[in-house]
Write a structure and sequence with these properties.
Number of domains: 2
Structural class: mainly alpha
Number of strands: 0
Strand content: under 5%
Helix content: over 70%
Distance between the termini: 86 Å
Radius of gyration: 39 Å
Mean pLDDT: 87
Amino acid sequence: MDETTSPQNWVDIISTAGPFVVALASLAFNYLQTKRIAKINYQKDIEIANIQQKSIILEESLRSKHVYLTRLEEIYSPILARTESLVQNYIGCICEENKPPASIVASLEHFVVDDYSNFSLEIRKTALAKAIIICHSVKNHRAYELAIKLDGQITQALALFDFTGKSSGAIHIDAIRKLQKEYQLSFVSIFYCIANDRG
């Protein structure tokens, strides 16, 4: 064996190069770990961005839904309040079974006729048109159907008003009360339908 290949030289070479080899191996290992962690962080960042985007979209949807519900309330609350007032006043005037027709007509003229005349079909149809636009904006066909149904039920209830004094008593009142419950339910259903829409 010559001096250049002796085992002692190999030991010296390995002892000298060993720390460099360990350093290179550690550097390669750290590089691979850093690359893996960066990939994991990238995936997490994408997931977080998607969650934030969904959250923002949901928040905007809720905000716009609240605006639409508030607008519907502004449109329909006066309509329902006037209808309820008319129905209650009308029922109050005709509720006695044996009240003479002339007395009923006098009560109706005093308490109901002017309000009934002022609550025109045009007012109700304008409210319906505004409600239909809102239902179309929120893309809720069920709410659209309920708005039309509500308008029809209010019209039917008001159509039962008899200003001649010939219709009175429990049977007539029950027919009006039945329609009253139906339009009240439709009123609430519109808001429930839009508020709980997942679209």
